[in-house]
Amino acid sequence: MVGEPPAVVDESPALPPDGGGGAPAAPPSPAACDASAADGVAVFASDVDTGAPQAPGAPPYAIDGCLLAYVAPREAGDASGALRLRDLGTGEELLLAPAAEAPRRPALAGDVVVWEATDHGARVVRVRRGGQTETIRGPFDHAGEPRVEGDAVVLTGWLTADESGDTDIFLYEIGQAEAVPIASGPGQQRFPDISATHVAFADFSEDPDGRFDEDARDLADIVVYDRRTRRAVPRSREGKQSFPMLGAGERVVAYLEWAPSHPEPKFEQFELRIGDITAPADDDALAASIEQWGRPYVLPAVRGELIEWVERPANGNASLRRRPADLSAPAAEVPGLSALELLGPSASATITVVAARSPGGELELRGVAR
Q1: Rounded to 5 degrees, what are φ and ψ at 165?
Q2: Beta bridge pairs of residue 147
Q3: Global pTM value
């Protein structure tokens, strides 16, 4: 029942990186649920822009079906909160990662959960499926920014310990010994997303310093990788395009654009564009011009027939906006969230969750039917 403490399925921490420890419990079996089941779940009120500890653009929660992965509020003495998996149908929960690992950026597909964590001071990507948790290995120094679809995980791998250094895109299929590179080149390739058929990422090789940072000269293009043919195709446009999002159909990609100039910090104003992967990038359509004055900054959500984002104008209340992915209708405000501080959306096929806080209150999830 909403408002009652959740039943705890397993309070043991996630398995160590090498898979040791006792036998983990299986994740809760999802039951039928409605959007209101997410209401009131308290989440970690971190600064997602600075990476303390959440990373740019990533909310500390993710939903798929009736399963919700979220970073809980931190307890006294902890710098972060623990990562939990909640069945919105039953209220049962599973502890995925303790607060000591500073879990962040969860992503969810079916019963597969991925997230960033800190292990002995290094950034790693964890994956959990069927009750087993492991750290994804590969030919990189450290890794982050994971996304998941089916049994495959895409992530960014740093080739050295330098956070501003060279990065490549890696694909990990569950059961493999390690992740394999699918996109490399000079400078940074970052912020991947994955669907059943494609991977999309931002390529900063054309940028003057070759990396993502708060620099008015930044340049980048979106690149789409076909998982079947293993062919990568750049979608070149003037200016900077980054943070690609798949999920609105096999042939659709959305992304953020700053062109020809962009503000600092960048996430205060940007355009959301959407297009057909097989068509020229010049044909991509403007879905929304978005303002998010003041932190935290969180990406839009692209899922199924809808795209959703938080609008936070310089003057006025924040709102959750929604528009059909085919742009057949203008954007509309989702009712019931006025006068609240809003974080950012995460969506399943039937439910969108957004973190909201009333003045002086805690940051809690609100569920909205799609």
Answers
A1: -85, -170
A2: 154
A3: 0.89
